[in-house]
Amino acid sequence: MQDQDYWRNKDPLWETALGVISTRSFPAIIDTADVMLKASGVRLIGYEKVGSGYVSAIVRGKIAEVRLAIQMGAEEAQKSGQLIATTLLPRPHPNMEFIFPFSSRLLGMLNGRDQRHSSQALGFLETRGFPAMVGAADAMLKSANVELLSYETIGSGLCTAIIQGSVTNVAVAIEAGIAEALRQKWELNAVTVIPRPLDDLVKTLPNVILEEEPQPLRLPINVKEAEKELVKIPLELSTASPTELPVELPIDFSTNSSTNSSPDLPLELPNLADLPNRSEIEPRENKDSES
């Protein structure tokens, strides 16, 4: 009991579990790992090849998530008939981290898993015999716009070609590789296509091209608007009332024949009160017209 309390305080991974699932095909273990990652929140630690075609995928995470991942992975491996064995270890002893190949990516696990999906697809074609794998890889490259990344050997003559490209191109390439293997009467062991794999799966494969993560648009921090200049009004004009302001209209004397007038004199307007009323003017005009 004291030993458990000691490791619970010392080991941040104490409340996690370890899951191992084994198949006898490299494409089958890749397909199984993809299902486990997408079904739960586990992290893929890596693969272990022990020869004779046996390969295992190792996952780590919370106990409930690892249990779900192993269950979903076993069901997927049973569909292809390649399932060999599964193991679930809740709270594995820290001494195992130094002996078994479990600690290669445990430091990255503390920072969380890579949940970004790739827009590309991965294709795997496994044959028995190296010449058959080379011939199938050549047929795939000539049939679609894909790239041959690498190949894997797991013993018992099983060799797997790994290609990458868009989902459509990878599917076309895999069909071409299968057709070439059947035409040449090569022994075809397994094939699989992984559309939009998680980066956590992609990083465990050799020579796989990772997509660049889009960077946010960076704007300058110190953005200041230009200050508006204030228009200063003279104090004399701002305090004067409209009646106090002199109104002088200039007069053009260029056409005036009078020499006594001065262009500097202001225009004098008549007083409206001194003008005669209209009613007084109309009878006078009528009398003039009658006469």
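The above is record 1. Record 2 follows with the same two-line structure.
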Amino acid sequence: MRRSEPRRTSRRPTIFTGYDTLKGMEPIDVAIRDESIRLGQFLKLANLVETGGLAKELIAEGQVSVNGEVDTRRGKVLRPGDVVSVAGMSARVATADEVDDDYFDEATADDDFDPEKWRNL
């Protein structure tokens, strides 16, 4: 039996919502390797959008702001310190030196840890 209507399989991608708990809070720091990064690339790196196509669309629609001002240039060059906002979520461009990714906690560290004991479990 044939269907009379075409089947819709494609959906418009949604804005990444993993940072819902951070809405309205201080922007998260996202480290970049080089001295600069383009706006579309940064949106994906910071997980503010799921795809580059969605980044392009949101930027073109004026839904993305850089340092508080709407910017419609996907190729805008961002440098450390710039803050990008979309859908109530914000991320700050940072260098690798600025981001504190050291999760070592001396208070809970086990000095008697033996890696050989846990190897190949």
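Confidence is low (pLDDT under 50) at residues 9-22.
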